[in-house]
Predict the structure.
Amino acid sequence: MNIHEFQAKQVLARFGAPVPKGHPASTPEEAAKAFEALGQPKAVIKAQIHAGGRGKAGGVKLVSSAAEARDFAAKLLGKPLVTHQTGPQGRVVRRVYVEQASEVARELYLGMVVDRKARSVAVIASTEGGMEIEEVAAKTPDRILTEPIDPVIGLAGFQARKIAFALGLRDKQVGQFGALLGALYKAFLETDASLIEINPLVVTKDGSVICLDAKMSFDDNGLFRHADIRELRDPNEEDPAETEASKYDLSYVHLDGNIGCMVNGAGLAMATMDIVKYYGAEPANFLDVGGGANSQKVAAAFRILLSDDRVKAVLINIFGGIMLCDVLAQGVVDAAREVKLSVPLVVRMEGTNVDKGKQILKDSGIKVIAASDMADAARRVVEAIGHRAQA
Ligand code: GDP
Ligand code: MN
């Protein structure tokens, strides 16, 4: 789960990380009031969406009066902001953050992730702040320092100093940075975070080290332990299809292709995506309906697939182990009637009650392309969207 910048800053501040003062605002009037409440000559107005690249896209502005704050908030609020991370449709700005402006001397990068290879949390630091870290990694990998933190020992003083020196920090900044890094690490562990990214971490003109931007993501499997973090969820920022899928306990991930896939079992779902690609098309999603799905669940899954208007054909690939093929077939028939199926449907099923299942599909009058095995199914669905099956 992801949260907004202002929320991440609130969480990090609770653990003692230095962040500028600020107030979220959802109307231009609130933004003007927030400016006055800060009581500073300058403030920064920042669009709050779950995407980076706002600065370059015109979503961040320095203002020096309440009227200016109001005007810029009015310009952002209620409209989509397109950044290189949002896709061409952008994301609607529903809130801005009005933050005390900082005088920036240097912009650095600081991240914290779960490093599976090192089996620990790792700190990622770079002097190239304010840029995309992926770009730095591709062009100048020598400017990135990765430091794993031993989970038993914790963050050691020498590690914090090593990173501070690599970032070119000196004197009292080294101590400040150590405390900041300690706060981030504590926040990371105690909230079951999966990512903290401070880009940029800045050195201000008066020599302080502060978090100017903040991004936090959390491990969904840990959320049950954190009611306070769960409350920060913003459904507006989530894919409606994924939200709908989670209601039915379906594992669904939206992808960029046009073949909708409905499969049971994560392994079979992966294999199905692979074979669709192998025959020259792209899956529109990953969808695992699970082992013991009933017909309502199958119908919900089918509706979710078809609600994506990029889906040009559907491939159902089910192995009836615990799941019964006739139950699946009934779910598909119910859903296909409900949504008035308008794209080709290829079905490959195998296993328990497969003959009963096939009979249900046949008797339903719904146009189904029956496939004999997985390769046949993939080939047929690729041909159904007018591609020539490769391989
Ligand atoms: P992002 O573009 O979505 O990552 O948004 P950021 O929060 O990183 O802001 C983008 C850029 O705006 C930063 O890299 C800074 O250069 C600039 N910026 C943001 N806040 C301030 C501020 O308080 N003072 C100054 N001088 N620049 C700021
Ligand atoms: Mn940033």
Remarks:
- The chain has a mean pLDDT of 94.
- Residues 239-384 form a domain with the Rossmann fold fold (CATH 3.40.50.261).
